Amino acid sequence: MASRVVLLLAMCVLPAMVVAIRPAKNPFSVKGRVYCDPCRAGFETPATTYIAGAEVMLQCKSRVSNEVVYTKKGWTDSTGTYTINVDEDHADQVCNAKLVSSPHPQCKHATPGRDEALVILTRYNGIATDNRFANAMGFMSQDVASGCAEILKQYQEFDNEN
Asked: Is the four-CA dihedral 19, 25, 26, 30 of positive or negative sign?
């Protein structure tokens, strides 16, 4: 009788314990967009276009040592959108999506302050989905495009109304 109990325990309880201990293998999907700022405004405007083929890197650093412990590259599609899949949880790390390069001949300079975006890659923060959305990152043109003065003037008029 005792051997049957042990056998039943081994067949039912142990596999359930192993499944409970093993972490889930649901990958995160880091998503974002890369744009070209022809007005050199530092943000997206009606003149903004999105860059296909831009290279983006996800980089995670240790919170303690600040050493890079994880990197993964990705590229934007025809709409300027990238998706980088990450298999593991990075709860003890600070992760950022970063601009690497732009294939756009007039938009090669990363916009200061818009060249990286913080991404939280842990399941221990209350976010129910595996999708993580990074703020849009941008490159700016070397010269201001024609028509940008009128666009930026609209923003000034809006500020003056408030």
From this structure: positive
